[in-house]
Amino acid sequence: MALLLLLLLLLLSSFAISADSSAASRRLLHFFPFDFPFHAFHFGFEPDYEPVESHEAVAAAPPPPHPRMQRAHSALQAWKRAIVSDPTNFTSNWVGDDVCSYNGVFCAPALDDPSLHVVAGVDLNGAGLAGRLPDEIGRLADAAILHLNSNRFAGPLPDTLSDLALLHELDLSNNNFSGPFPQSVLRLPGLKYLDLRFNDFHGPLPPELFDRDLDALFLNDNRFDSRIPENFGNIKASAVVLANNKFTGCVPRSVGRMRSTLNEIVLSNNELTGCLPPEIGSLTRLTVLDVSQNFLSGGLPESFSRLKDIEQLNLAHNTLVGAVPDWACRLERLENLSVSDNYFTRVASSCRERSGDVAFDDVNNCLSGVIGQKLAAECAAPVLSGFSVCGGPPRSVPLPPSSLDVRAFVSPPPLPPPPRPKCVPAPRSAPLPPPSSFGVLPPVGGIQYASPPPPLPIFNGY
């Protein structure tokens, strides 16, 4: 203790030039530990400060990201390296460990551990990015949405996409993805919304697709070229759009199984043949039915009179025959009815009476006394070719009034009863429309479809 007192006296003498004893005492702190018992000594003054540590305080380093966030970080960095064009610098802030601050990346508490924040979704809609999807995308295992519409991503989908076990919505529309239908999509257990339209997928549709519990299915504007699988009606979706492909064969009669869910079905601009299945009449929730620009034959099933909620009914550009009956034009909620470019010979007067509230189009049929109709010789073609036969013997087409050349409507000699019509491909009548440039997707059948935006607040208990 004596040595310590001596040392203190020596140090105080070295600071004699300074008149501020308080400042001198502060400098002493640098020579002693913080817990040195200064209170045991009296220097003749009362300190005007609180003792502080002898070194500057250092901010605690942030904890390292947990493993799930580290995997998400590696996935997004691999994805950024796979992007070859980013015209709007959308991914310019994809740097650093804080992936939740990246453009288009959304985080939320993990479903199995709310104390952890995870990447719950990626929404790059309309960013104009070009590149491919890397294999590392499977590391985004907590993602519930993946919205990539209106970009320029290309190539096949990686098999690791099936590792996204929580994925609920997958929108890859309006890109340049190619290859057969991606099998990885069939292995996504929680998928409800699938949108692959406006890409370059081709080949057959796997029947397993229609055994999935999907709420919405959009496959239009690709190059799929198979028959529609017979289990088509198992899907129980509210919206099914298969337009602008090369689907062949009949509309499966299993379509009636969707009666409790289906609101909109669009099968336009394919190569479908055969008759309209009467089971469609059981789809009492249906608001949109578009089977235009195919090669469907026969007449309108009377069961269609049960479509009480139908608003858009498009039967144009087929080879349908017979009459457009009164009930077809008295459907209560009907807004648009097109039967143009068929072979109908009669239209109920109620169709024209509702012209004020229903858009009705019957041009290029076989209607007597109505302008803009087919030539008489054309109107005989469906009868001569047997197009009017759907699973039974030929049905005669009513002869038109004498204002047309009835000689063109004379039936040929009776034909033997044909077998149920084989739904065979027919020549394609119109080229596929090109995909739109990135931006707003064009409507299909007059209906504008788009993937839903991420909910706000994002994935609260997703």
Automatic annotation (TrEMBL):
GO biological process: cell wall organization
Location of this chain's protein in the cell: Secreted, Cell wall
Alphabetically ordered keywords of this record: Cell wall, Cell wall biogenesis/degradation, Glycoprotein, Hydroxylation, Leucine-rich repeat, Repeat, Secreted, Signal
Domain Leucine-rich repeat-containing N-terminal plant-type: 74-107
Annotated signal peptide: 1-18
InterPro entries recorded: Leu-rich_rpt, LRR_dom_sf, LRR_extensin-like_regulator, LRR_N_plant-typ
Main location: secreted
Database matches in SUPFAM superfamilies: L domain-like
Keyword match Secreted: yes
Official protein name in the record: Cell wall hydroxyproline-rich glycoprotein
